[in-house]
Amino acid sequence: MSDRISSVLTEHRQFPPSTDARKGAHISGAAALKRLKAKADADPVAFWEGAARALHWQAPWKQALQWKVPQAKWFVGGRLNAAENCLDRHLQTPRANKAALIWEGEPGETRTLTYRQLHRDVSRFANVLLGLGVKKGDVVGIYMGMVPEAVVAMLACARIGATHNVVFGGFSADAVAERMNDSGAVVLITQDVAMRRGTTVELKLAADAAAKRCRGLKHLIVFRRGNGTVPMKAGRDHWWHELMEAAPATCPPVGLDAEHPLFILYTSGSTGKPKGILHTTGGYLTQAAWTHKHIFDLRDDDVYFCTADIGWITGHSYIVYGPLANGATVVMYEGAPTYPEPDRFWAMIERHAVTIFYTAPTAIRAFMKSGESWPRRYDLSSLRLLGTVGEPINPEAWMWYHSVIGGGRCPIVDTWWQTETGAIMISPLPGATTTTPGTATQPLPGILADVVHKDGTPCKPNEGGLLVITHPWPSMLRTIFGNDERYRQTYWSEFPKSRTCPGWYFTGDGARKDKKGNIWIIGRVDDVVNVSGHRLGTAEIESALVSHKTVAEAAVVARPDEVKGNALVAFVTLKHGVAPKNLDRLKAELREHVGAEIGHIAKPDEIRFAEALPKTRSGKIMRRLLRELVTGGAVQGDTTTLEDLSVLETLRADED
Ligand code: WT7
Predict the structure, then answer these.
(1) CA of 362 to the centre of ligand 1 (A)
(2) Is 513 in the same domain as 565?
């Protein structure tokens, strides 16, 4: 089969950086960016060395990059501590008493922790871990909701050189057990309960069930979020607050090798056993901090709100390590975006006078679905910059975000990256880049990426192909924990080192590059559909559907068809308040709409209306399940990462 992916989305609106966005920006104006990029791309290693110098090093590195495909070591010989960079460093500056975290609980309480206070709690908790026998290099599990203590736990691990393994608080006991066992965790930190959607989630009971199957787990530490009436196993389980009371408040940050493992984070992808993505200290922190500062164009008086969960890489890099290394004020929210009403984020932006807001396209589409009357009730004028991450943002959602949330004045940074890349790789720089809805624009300075054919030859402008990274970058994953061979196979076998290729990282994404050099992500290559010999990215067809006034969200998959090879099935959810009298007429209208937007060949053969689409807990549509549904009716694959199983049951019932 050919490797060509036809790209059919056309979008040309341009948004050059405004005078306001350029004024005082760290990188101001297209010419400045062009100069910086030319220099950085000619010598990425020197560029990232410059970025690394913004951190505090206990000992300097001797060699900036040691690269033996696919094994990278950055800042070899250097020693540093991530927690020291995120905390201690600020205590000698006027930031000492600045808010590091402004936290809002779902029920409505708020807590503010200054850098000094966060430093004290982290030091105490580091002593708690040491007291339980945790040593440098041990793995510590964190299975918590969005509470400041989750950040404290992560940084305390970093302080003593323990490697944290955060498991999203919405995952089941099974998922926790698998991830603890695979990583060999010795301690698990959890809560009695987590607060979510107005009720409590029994985290401790799930942790207990997991611990039963984890022989290596010696201790459970339980933070009390609810009323604390949970079973505690004597000798194994400890209350967070009791240990903290007894712990000394000073704990020096240990000097760690730049390549010391900072964390493991499991990513499931759509198939197979979860992969323990391993990130190390110096390179990761360098790129997390540089990208956070420059892409969000951080100023000292910013109030920055990232809506991700700490259980995902976005939470690691852009709630914890990037922002805190830069001394930013971070707003952290515990609960559901729709609690008690679908206006929670907007209320929080007004309440805390948020200036930078970073969220996901799936959330934006959900807000569009519930209607703009919700954000309209709030004063969002403090905002000056918006960001998105997680999947291609359809131009419709981009425009809504731009006008309704950003008041037409805020630049939008559409940031492309992956759990594996550790930090942002492709993104506009708000004071310098002209943006167009739907593209993450260009690789950052010092990041070399390309769109190529399967044989490694570059694609022509606008020709769809495979997105590769052609030079190692500081925050790249170092391996899949305990499985170097799977690491090589998954990311480095598509374009291995050869006479003609130095060895490239394959992202798994399809993309095209336009004439200006902007990269348009078409989606995961696994999600590409083949219709009458054309390979189409489902994201583009979905984007066309969503540009219709009645549609909130869409997912397109293929089912085998005797004539066309494949037929396209579109699952569509309608906007709030849309109640079509004649569903068949609407189906016909939607097919015509796609035909008009991108052409006849992309018209779905079948449209099914649904109440909701099956999504992972991080909001990605699980097209694999829909594919299984339309091909055989049965869903056989793994559904443990599905956010809400009932969605699938409803879809299946519609089928019968
Ligand atoms: C995949 C990585 C990185 C944090 C959240 C997701 C897709 C991510 C974008 C974007 C188009 C995007 C890609 C990528 N993706 N950001 N701005 N535009 N697609 O992390 O779960 O590791 O997923 O998300 O397909 O490969 P992840």
Answers:
(1) 12
(2) no
Percent share of the chain, pLDDT over 90: 80
Gap between the Cα atoms of 409 and 118, Å rounded: 34
Listed range (19-23, 129-133, 628-632) with the worst mean pLDDT: 628-632
pLDDT tens sequence across 216-259:
999 999 999 999 899 999 999 999 999 999 999 999 999 999 99
Tell whether the model's pLDDT for residue 327 goes beyond 60.
yes
Q: Is residue 166 part of a domain?
A: no
Which residue has the CA at smallest separation from atom 6 of ligand 1? 390
Q: Where are the beta strands (DSSP E) in 187-231?
A: 187-191, 194-196, 199-201, 219-223
Between 635 and 155, where is the model more confident? Answer: 155
Which residues have a Cβ under 8 Å from the Cβ of 589 and sit 6 or more positions away? 548
Find tokens 């030091």 and name the residue: 123
pLDDT at 1: 38
Asked if residue 191 is part of any domain, the answer here is no
Lining ligand 1 with CB less than 6 A are: 267, 313-314, 389-392, 414-419, 440, 507-509, 521, 524, 618
Q: Tell me which residue of 379, 519, 496, 499 sits closest to 440, measured CA to CA.
A: 519
Name the residue at shortest CA distance from atom 1 of ligand 1: 418
Whole-angstrom Cα distance, residue 159 to residue 381? Answer: 38
Range of the domain at 499: 1-57+283-302+328-522
Reading the block at residue 363, the tokens are: 């959330």
Q: Are 356 and 415 part of one and the same domain?
A: yes
What pLDDT shows up at residue 564? Answer: 72
d(Cα 377, Cα 394) in Å, to the nearest integer? Answer: 25
Pocket-testing residue among 271, 319, 401, 418, ligand 1, by greatest number of atoms within 8 A of Cβ:
418
The token duo for 354 is 């948020």
**Residue 551 to residues 68, 366, 467, 481, 548: CA-CA distances in angstroms?**
49, 11, 30, 41, 6
Give CA–CA dist 96/459, Å, rounded: 50
Dist. CA 460–CA 457, nearest whole Å: 9
- CB contact at 8 A, 153 and 142: yes
